[in-house]
Amino acid sequence: MILPIYIYGQPVLRKVANDIDPENYPHLKELIENMFETMYNADGVGLAAPQVGLEDRIFVVDLTVLADEDPEFDGFKKVFINAHILERTGDIELMEEGCLSLPGIHEKVPRKNSIRIQYLDENLQLHDEVYEGYKARAIQHEYDHLDGILFVDKINPMRKRMIKSKLSNLMKGKTDCHYKVKTLK
Question: Could you give the number of structural domains in the chain?
């Protein structure tokens, strides 16, 4: 089932998500399936639970669509439950990002190029892994949603002032998306 994606201004996007008890979480597999379906419908490569209105530490990433550009992304489809980044290392790299909760906005975001993350997968297996490059960036972007952080919080202050009217329009419910959304208005 395709879920509505919460747009900038929705309070849930600014809340810190809670770890869940995955063994007693109702309909966890269904939620994961719905999150992937919602993400694909919106042409995204990642989606976090707060983006569909839930205050839970769950996000999904699927970079396989980028495999034509780089074979390392082939089959990179993952579920992250109760994820916690343990380390951010390496150089800070600047790269353009967008977000399904901020349609029409793309900005260069600084991020460390290597992370170590601990999480449970969809089968509730514990992982402690290191990711680098674009994989690390995509994971950090979705992970930030779990901490109530949006990519526009990390951009140059001057750039943020320049997109203030776009952000204001999103808060007013003015958006032109091809996917189902939930706005404040």
Answer: 1
pLDDT along the chain (185 residues), means of 10: 97 98 96 98 98 98 96 97 98 97 97 98 98 98 98 96 96 93 86
Helix, coil or strand: residue 129: strand
Q: Is 142 a catalytic residue?
A: yes
State the catalytic residue, choosing from 87, 96, 107, 142: 142
For the entire predicted model, the pTM comes to 0.96
Beta strands 107-120 and 77-97 are: antiparallel
User: DSSP 3-state assignment of 29?
Assistant: helix
Q: Domain containing 15 — which CATH number?
A: 3.90.45.10
Q: Reduced to 3 states, what is the DSSP secondary structure of residue 94?
A: strand
